[in-house]
Amino acid sequence: MSIIRPRLNDFYNIPMTQEEVDFAIPFIDEDIPLYVDPFLLWKSPSLQDNSLHLTITNSFNHLGYLVSNGKEKEASEIIIRASECDEVGLGNSKTKKGKRIGEKLALTILNQFTSIPQLNKNGFTHFEELQLLVDNFSKDRVSDIACNFIQSFLIDFTIEQSEKYGIPIEKVKLNNLYNTKTNSFGVEETHLPVNPNSKAPILFIPKRWLKFIPWINTDDYFNSYYIKNVHKDGDEFPDRIRLLNFNRHNYDMVQAYTAIKEKQIENCKNDPLFSQIPVTSAKRKISTITKLATGKTDNADRKFEDNVCQLMTSLVYPHLDFAQEQSRTESGVQIRDLVFYNNKSFDFLEEIYEAYKCKQIVMELKNVHEVKQEHILQLNRYLKDQFGNFGIIITRNPPPKKVIKNVIDLWSAHRKCILILDDTDLKMMTQVFESKQRNPIEVIKKKYIEFTRACPS
């Protein structure tokens, strides 16, 4: 059964929401667009996280020790092997397969230990500073190196979470397991979840470690530190290469910036995989929606779709995780849909999962004055596979009686359930969202109950 943007738990029919689990649920076909930020481990109140940060730092600084003892080739091989961690599936790759750094970049990284006196003497406290020193060393490398050095912990964490949620594991061979006792990479067999397509092993990552951009990063350094403390009025702004060159020759500036970032520790928080819009923003969006004209005048259909998409994904969270928005064409008409994973996290969601075989919920957006029979038929033709026999149309006005009859007839003949939400329903969901007394998804449940009551018993 094909699922849109499938996740590992969807493949195994294990209902779970991203909100309820401690790890980022992996996608099967693509990476999670977040990165491990070692700074989050450093600032964590958890002693375990602090000790893992120390492991990462010590393992990285061992490279400097090797270089200073004439073992540059050994150090180069380690940093190259550490530079990619496919098992965690983080980043922006659409292939689930990353690429390691080359020998030239590896030597440039190692060169920092010999060319910068402070690093030669003490090593790094936060190796993410390399982003400020070396070109082509970016957040994905920071993340992958951190993950590789603590892969042993990630294996235990993944097995523990798999057992907790009933995710199948099988025997796998890991070719890149770092041993902190010998400071070397080796091969080990263990049991982990695997990607059902490629059979590649999967490691879970704690959500609390993930950010879109590391706390220490080049853009922030340039904007919040360099411009204020280094740049002189009238001087030309350096390009990236000149800035990195300046940082290498003035590493004390980088240290001063890092010290400031350490003091601002309270502001450093992980990024959630999905963020609800604030109440004020939700109220603005419903206000915009209700004032829009129906049809396509002044791009009203597109504005309706954009606003409903941003509003609805927040209103139904955390009970429904957003899969994606998509467009499809039917009879020359472009139709925009929202697709959600049905995690059975609410009683009525469990009912539609069982009664209508609905593994994903499709919501079709229609900025029309009146829903017609053709709109019902369009969605009806689409209701198969992962959507089962359940779908939702989001439109502007309550449907006319003849359309309600068509929907009931469709249920009687084919046991298909199509709910129709209008502006007043979205308004009510937004009010519930604001009050925080109940869950906005209860408005959809109410619609569902009304529908089932109207159907012949």
What's the gist of this structure?
By secondary structure, the protein is α/β, with parallel strands linked by helices. It has helices at residues 8-11, 38-43, 47-68, 72-82, 103-115, 117-122, 139-149, 151-165, 218-229, 240-249, 251-263, 279-291, 300-315, 347-356, 373-382, 401-414, 423-435, 441-454; strands spanning 35-36, 170-179, 184-192, 210-211, 320-330, 333-342, 360-365, 390-394, 417-421. Helix content is 47%, strand content 13%.
Q: Give the N-terminus to C-terminus distance in angstroms.
A: 31 Å
> Which structural class best describes the helix and strand composition?
alpha/beta
What are the segments in which pLDDT stays under 50 over at least 5 consecutive residues? none
Measured as a percent range, the helix fraction is: 40-55%
- Please give the count of helices: 18
Mean pLDDT, to the nearest integer, reads 94
Strand order of the largest sheet: 5-6-7-8-9
Strand content: 5-15%
Shape: elongated
Order of helices and strands: HEHHHHHHHEEEHHHHHEEHEHEHEHH
Number of strands: 9
Q: Major sheet: size, sense and barrel closure? A: 5 strands, mixed
Radius of gyration (Å):
26 Å
Task: Estimate nothing, just give the exact number of structural domains.
Answer: 2
